[in-house]
Amino acid sequence: MGNHPSQQFFAGNVEVICGPMFSGKTEELIRRVRRAQIARQKVQIFKPAIDNRYHETNVVSHSSLEIAATPVIDAIDILKKLYDSTRIVAIDEIQFFDHSIIKIVKKLARRGVRVICAGLDQDYRGSSFGPMPELLAISDDVCKVQAICTVCGAGATKTYRKPSDNTEQVLVGEADLYEARCRTHFDYYGEDEDELLAFTVAVNPVDNQAELKL
Ligand code: ADP
Ligand code: MG
After folding, report:
1. Which ligand does the CA of 27 lie closest to?
2. Which atom from ligand 1 is nearest to the alpha carbon of 92?
3. Which residues form the catalytic set?
4. Does the global pTM surpass 0.90?
5. Ligand 1 in reach of 24 Cβ (< 6 A)
6. Banded model confidence at residue 68, pLDDT cuts 50, 70, 90
7. Does the pLDDT of residue 205 top 70, yes or no?
8. Is residue 61 lining ligand 1, measured as CB closer than 6 Å?
């Protein structure tokens, strides 16, 4: 806490941990929560009720770290279930909330709460996920973590969805459905093959006539 009088009692802030699946977002969230608990700060952990892959209530990492959490049905449910004494709020899988989560996060930080958010920055197509762009913009601290590409072992920033008939953005699953991939081994879903070819020619021009037509 800083020395300025305005910071003495209300040092709220917003931290975001983002990256693809299997990158250690939940591990990092649990690490920060455990440290806060060691410091005897009152922490509440929330997760969207939609994410029941491992456990109805606990937040569980792919490496089997586990911590008790409160499932919430929407963003406002966090305020309803918040205790006055809570100094730190941790929210896992925050990409599943709608945009009202931004207001809630800002409100908590204004009240002096340290808000730790973890979520997927991109969906399986490589597009931004739900409220993440705005959340990243309004946050004080961003930690972008990488997984390991299942194809080549390089750092992975993308989540690849194994071939499936379902093209919905939200399809809750695990290693059965998803893999971490680097940019090279990530499929360009939905991108027109001709456009991709034109782009490849443009960035590696064989002759000077090649034009970028995107
Ligand atoms: P996230 O919340 O980002 O999905 P977790 O914190 O739940 O990630 O899990 C991270 C753990 O997942 C790693 O410590 C490792 O044990 C395991 N893991 C499984 N597959 C991979 C992978 N492809 N790259 C990195 N870690 C992986
Ligand atoms: Mg996770």
Report:
1. 1
2. 2
3. 93
4. no
5. yes
6. very high
7. no
8. yes
Query: In the predicted model, is pLDDT for residue 1 greater than 50?
Result: no
- Which residues are found with C-beta within 5 Å of the ion, ligand 2? 25-26
Angle made by CA atoms 56, 180, 94, in degrees to the nearest 5: 40
Q: Which of the four pLDDT bands, split at 50, 70 and 90, describes residue 196?
A: low
Q: Which CATH architecture has domain 5-146?
A: 3-Layer(aba) Sandwich (3.40)
Q: How far is the CA of 21 from the centre of ligand 1 (A)?
A: 7
- The residue to mutate among 59, 63, 176, having the most atoms of ligand 1 within 8 angstroms of its beta carbon, is 63
- Ligand 1 pocket member 151 (CB < 6 A): no
Mean residue pLDDT of the chain comes to 88
- Read off the pLDDT of each residue in 169-182 and give the average, rounded to a whole number: 86
Could you tell me where in the chain the CATH 3.40.50.300 domains are found?
Answer: 5-146
Tens of pLDDT, residues 22-40: 999 999 999 999 999 999 9
State the closest ligand 1 atom to the C-alpha of 149, by its place in the atom list counted from 1.
23
- For residue 17, give the ligand nearest its CA: 1
> Could you tell me the distance, in angstroms and rounded to a whole number, from the CA of residue 24 to the centre of ligand 1?
5
